[in-house]
Amino acid sequence: xxxxxxxxxxxxxxxxxxxxxxxxxxxxxxxxxxxxxxxxxxxxxxxxxxxxxxxxxxxxxxxxxxxxxxxxxxxxxxxxxxxxxxxxxxxxxxxxxx
Length: 98
Hints:
Elements: E1 3-8, E2 11-13, E3 25-30, E4 36-42, E5 49-51, E6 54-57, E7 61-70, E8 76-85
Parallel strand pairs: 3-8
Antiparallel strand pairs: 1-2, 1-4, 4-6, 5-7, 7-8
């Protein structure tokens, strides 16, 4: 794959690590109000097919998104993006020493 990037609203979100075609797992964090992201990818070869892109719904917690590149010969390579949506109302406990 040549490119892989994520859009939240109209803002590009950086993947960690930065995209490299030999790295198969990525992660990113988004704010609690985010309900969908746009995944865009571009294959190195114009004859390859990319699946798993477009507008994708996400919810609080970890969301695993898989983008798969299918070569003309049928070989597949899958990239996993772990999108962590922050909690809307996290429970905060204060611990004190009596």
